[in-house]
TrEMBL record:
Occurrences of domain ABC transporter (ranges): 355-591
Family according to the record: Belongs to the ABC transporter superfamily. Siderophore-Fe(3+) uptake transporter (SIUT) (TC 3.A.1.21) family.
Membrane topology: Multi-pass membrane protein
Source species, domain of life: Bacteria
Main location group: membrane
Statement: the UniProt record of this protein carries the keyword Membrane: yes
Protein source organism: Egicoccus halophilus
Protein name: ABC transporter ATP-binding protein
Pfam families, per database record: ABC_membrane, ABC_tran
Transmembrane segments: 20-45, 73-91, 153-173, 179-196, 264-284
Length: 602
């Protein structure tokens, strides 16, 4: 539990950590006001009981006011106490506000740091991790860290100071009674902690796991809704989500049940103590007036200590419950601590001579074999290169290595003789990439083409040129809102071909020197693809174009064609040249003639 507390403090940045320590200082002041309030209550009780005052501070104050037997002194003390308690309540409300605000801003800061870190991590990291884990950590785990870690930590600290201070006061007033209270109440709370904390840790770990299962299940169900409905598989996906939510709910109500126990045990222990104290006092023959004033003081202190002790126990329980979330968030924050978001202001890195791959190999994490093997390749600037091959041959991996998304396991990628990794962001700023799996945000076509560019910085002339070249004009003409049409989540309101044309327009809008189409025309019908390729040829002057295609007709007009097989470049040459001299390329062409794949219209 101490390790969890230390981890909570390590999670927050220095600026917020300073504020939390400042809040702890305010909590000490608030605790001091609680202790002062207890002294004032004891003074009033002693005056009312006419037993005299035992504590030096109240005696000095009351003596200055006049004769303790004078009712005007009682009135003055009562009014002073009323003003004090109003001011104390106002101060505690202020501390509560600062506490809530700091908790909210700290949670937001953690979520932003995690999100920035996840986006800065290498692409390969996200290939091996389910996105629901990262989403859970950003959305739920950061809130759990703050509300179940940092906030209870401050509550435990403040409550401990209050309890310790009030105990000191009570030791001065009644050493025997205080010792009895510590034995009765302390024993009860220690036993309670020993019994419930292991369970709470397990509840927290299980709830943390179930929150990810729930998120993953609903993500998959909504993303695959079309296929799920066609296959009639709604029930299995609903059941998987139901398993997670049922177990999460069970952990929640078990935690809530245990959360009530500290208050119930505390109240019972205090009542038992008061009865025992009264019995012991009677057995010792103490004066009834003194017993009444001390019991009154214990009753007041009990009212103040009960929430404090409950807060201590509940806070410790919350820390135990939140330990799984704290561990996960801390691990990811440490993981992303060494990475920074790439410089968005980096200047585009133009391609002047060539792209060279020197004995490049790449293996995905956990894979038994390399996806690319000892690839030696030089791609000259200003050429149009087609890349073809069977599914799984390594074409897309080759493109990801060239773009810098995947660093080679072995070998090196050079741009104009300079290692790509020396200016990865500058190189990527000079690329226009179209993938077979098109990414669209739930926004207008205009904003999807200029993805991430603020509206006031969007170049309309450049945008319309990209629309024209991408053969998107007829699509926009058929839509009532044209460029302002909202595409829906993932572009669900557009056909596959329309989505790819939007992606092509996005790549062209960048006016990049290097265009990469990774199956970027696979969803287009033959006529639209032919028009697009003609448009690409028209604007390719000064540009380097790499085209990955499963249809050989797409690469027929390329200056050079690469045949990739088993992670190697098996053949390299002009289209007609490969048809003549390479049997594997001829077989691929023959298969495509016999089975012409269909493409989605538009």
């Amino acid at each position: 539990m101490l390790e969890t507390a230390r981890s909570c403090l390590r999670l927050i940045d220095p600026r917020h950590r300073t504020r939390w320590f400042g809040l702890a200082g305010l909590a000490v002041v608030s605790s001091g006001l609680e202790i002062l309030g207890a002294l004032m209550v004891y003074s009033m009780l002693s005056l009312v009981a006419a037993e005299g005052l035992d504590l030096p501070l109240p005696v000095a104050i009351v003596d200055r006011l006049g004769d303790p037997d004078d009712n005007r002194v009682l009135v003055t003390v009562a009014l002073a106490m009323a003003v004090f308690f109003v001011l104390r309540a106002a101060f505690q409300a202020l501390v509560g506000y600062l506490h809530a605000r700091l908790a909210a801003t700290t949670g937001a800061n953690l979520a932003k740091r995690l999100t920035a870190g996840y986006l800065a991590l290498p692409y390969a990291f996200h290939l091996r991790r389910n996105s629901s884990t990262s989403i859970r950590n950003v959305q739920a785990a950061t809130a759990q860290v703050v509300n179940g870690g940092l906030a209870p930590l401050i509550n435990v600290f403040a409550a401990t100071v209050v309890t310790a201070g009030l105990l000191v006061v009570m030791v001065v007033i009644s050493p025997l009674g205080t010792a009895l209270a510590v034995v009765v109440v302390g024993s009860a709370m220690l036993v309670l902690l020993r019994l419930i904390q292991p369970r709470l840790k397990w509840y927290g770990q299980t709830a943390h796991q179930m929150s990810q299962q729930m998120l993953q299940a609903i993500q998959q169900a909504l993303q695959g809704l079309r296929d799920i409905k066609l296959l009639g598989r709604e029930k299995p996906f609903t059941a998987r989500f139901g398993e997670g939510v049922d177990e999460f709910s069970r952990m929640a109500y078990l935690r809530a049940t245990l959360g009530q126990l500290p208050r119930l045990v505390m109240e019972t222990a205090l009542l038992v103590f008061i009865l025992l104290f009264f019995a012991v006092s009677a057995a010792l023959g103490q004066a009834s007036g003194q017993v009444v004033s001390v019991l009154g003081m214990f009753a007041y202190v009990g009212l103040r200590v009960q929430p404090s002790l409950t807060a201590v126990v509940s806070g410790l329980n919350e820390l135990r419950y939140a330990s799984a979330a704290v561990d996960d968030v801390l691990a990811d924050l440490e993981l992303v601590a060494s990475v920074e978001l790439p410089d968005t202001a980096a200047s585009p890195r133009p391609l002047r001579s060539n792209i060279e791959l020197r004995r490049v190999s790449f293996r995905y994490d956990g894979a038994a074999e390399d996806a690319l093997r000892d690839v030696d390749l030089v791609l000259d600037a200003g050429t149009m290169v087609g890349i073809c091959g069977a599914t799984g041959s390594g074409k897309s991996t080759l493109m990801d290595v060239i773009t810098g998304l995947l660093p080679p396991t072995d070998g090196q990628v050079l741009v104009d003789g300079v290692p790509l990794e020396d200016d990865r962001r500058g190189w990527q700023r000079n690329l226009g990439v179209v993938s077979q799996s098109v990414f669209l945000v739930d926004d207008t076509i205009r904003r999807n083409i200029a993805l991430g560019v603020p509206d006031d910085e969007l170049d309309e002339e450049q945008l319309h040129e990209a629309v024209q070249l991408a053969q998107l004009e007829d699509v926009l003409a058929a839509l009532p809102d044209g460029l302002e049409t909202t595409v829906g989540e993932g572009g669900v309101r557009l056909s596959g071909g329309q989505r790819q044309r939007v992606a092509i327009a996005r790549a062209l809008y960048r006016q990049a020197d290097v265009l990469l189409l990774d199956e970027g025309t696979s969803a287009l019908d033959n006529l639209t693809e032919a028009r697009l390729m003609q448009a690409l040829h028209a604007v390719r002057a000064g540009r380097t174009v790499l085209v990955v295609a499963h249809r050989l007709s797409t690469v027929e007009a390329c200056d050079r064609v690469l045949l990739v097989e088993g992670g190697r470049v098996r053949a390299d040459g002009g289209y007609d040249e490969l048809l003549e001299r390479d049997a594997a390329f001829r077989r691929l062409a023959l298969r495509q003639e016999l089975t012409t794949p269909s493409a989605e219209p538009g």
